[in-house]
Structure formats: structure tokens, C-alpha cells
Design goal:
Layout (H helix, E strand, L loop, with lengths): L6 E13 L2 E13 L3 E5 L5 H8 L3 E6 L5 H4 L2 H8 L3 E4 L3 H7 L7 E3 L4 E4 L2 E7 L8 E5 L4 E5 L2 E2 L2 E2 L9 H12 L7 E4 L5 E2 H4 L3 H7 L2
Parallel strand pairs: 3-4, 4-5, 5-6, 10-13
Antiparallel strand pairs: 1-2, 2-3, 7-8, 8-9, 9-10, 11-12, 13-14
Helix pairs in contact: 1-3
Bound molecules: fe (ii) ion.
The site of fe (ii) ion has 4 residues, from loops.
Length: 212
């Protein structure tokens, strides 16, 4: 199925998330996609040194950020110092980025449909706003895998109760961009356990009815 020997590693890191004056303890999933020589890192949160150790001697081709919430991005600068790979973030979340890094912009604005090649496979960016305006999911079709950030979790959509979030928008993103993917697609999330498109799809109407 895959062109090469693609590996997907998860590093779980711990820290805090702050927005709207509150702060919460969180565990984040950091995803490393690659092979023996190169990799791409998604959301290098909280513990840059642990992530660099998981990367090992491999070249980091890109740092991809699923969205601009500070638990996902606040260690991106320190991780950049370790690996010097370009940082990508959808422009609609740069206002969140600037609350953490007022002096510097991300290197590249992610556009819907952008493709990132690593280890002979391709990650495709799907703009899935709702949790935040610039939330992006990454589809690794060769491995039947979706990296959903905080857009889709086991049991429902990402939170939409705080600033810059919108529930109808996240539902629309999930319905039109994610649920058309093959049901066997493994959904690897920004926090917590993985799920599949097929496991979540039957519950869309329940989520709409409950409103979160
Ligand atoms: Fe988030």
C-alpha cells in the first residue's frame, strides 16, 4: 500500500493549554511520520527534547501545526531551534500564533490541498475549520490514516466553546471533509486515543443534537 516503509510514531507530552483567561493541564499527541532517514513532525508540543530524541538522527523535513492553540504551538520555537525545519500553519490561525510568538511569523502558510512528501508517501492538508478558523487535518492516504488535530476525536468533535471556535463550522468540516474518507481510515488525534472514520460516522446526528 505505501511506497516505502513509512513509520508513524506517537510521543505523548504533558503541559498546559491556556485560552480566554483559563489554564488547563493537557496531554498532547505528537506524531512523527517518516522512515530511517527523514520525517515530518506534527504538533511538537510541550517537550522539544523528548521529541528530538524520538526523531533521532533523521532529517526533519517540516513541522506541521494542526492549529494555533498554545498547547500545540508554544514549543514549536524551541523545537525549531533543535531541528531547523520550516514551521507550517494555516494563516487563519496566525492571530493565535502571534499571542505566543509576537515577534516572528510561521515560515509557511498551509493552504487547503497542500501536499507534503515524506518517506515516499504524501500527507495532504485538509482545511477543517471550526475548533479554530485555521484548523487543518492531514490525510496520509497510503497508510489509511488521518491526523485530525483537535477537529475529530474518539467520541465527537473538538471543543467549540471558547474564542474563535464555531460548532456548526466544525460539524460542516467533519461532514464534508472527513467523513467522505474511507471508513477504515485510522484517525490519530491531537489528544487521547485513536479511532476510525467508520466508528465515528454513525454518531454525527447525536453530536448535532447535543450541540458539542
Ligand atoms: Fe485546540
Amino acid at each position: 500500500m505505501s511506497a516505502g516503509n513509512v513509520t508513524i510514531d506517537r510521543v505523548v507530552t504533558s503541559g498546559t493549554f491556556s485560552l480566554d483567561g483559563g489554564t488547563w493541564d493537557v496531554d498532547n499527541n505528537v506524531w512523527i511520520i517518516g522512515d530511517d532517514s527523514e520525517c515530518i513532525v506534527i504538533d511538537p508540543a510541550h517537550n522539544p527534547e523528548a521529541i528530538r530524541q524520538a526523531v533521532g538522527e533523521r532529517t526533519v523535513k517540516a513541522i506541521l501545526l494542526t492549529h494555533g492553540h498554545d498547547d500545540h504551538i508554544s514549543s514549536a520555537g524551541a523545537f525549531w531551534e533543535l531541528v531547523k525545519a520550516p514551521i507550517h500553519l494555516h494563516q487563519d490561525d496566525w492571530m493565535l500564533w502571534r499571542t505566543v510568538f509576537p515577534e516572528i511569523d510561521p515560515d509557511v502558510a498551509i493552504m487547503d490541498g497542500d501536499e507534503f512528501t515524506v518517506a515516499g508517501s504524501t500527507l495532504k492538508a485538509l482545511h477543517t475549520p471550526g475548533h479554530s478558523p485555521g484548523s487543518v487535518s492531514f490525510h496520509l492516504a497510503s497508510e489509511a490514516t488521518l491526523f485530525s488535530g483537535d477537529t475529530l476525536f474518539q467520541g465527537g468533535p473538538g471543543a467549540t466553546g471558547r474564542s474563535y471556535s464555531d460548532f456548526p463550522t466544525i460539524i460542516d468540516s467533519i461532514r464534508t471533509r472527513l467523513f467522505p474518507l474511507p471508513e477504515a481510515t485510522v484517525v490519530r488525534t491531537g489528544h487521547g486515543d485513536s479511532t476510525t472514520i467508520g466508528a465515528e460516522k454513525p454518531h454525527l446526528d447525536e453530536w448535532i443534537a447535543r450541540g458539542h
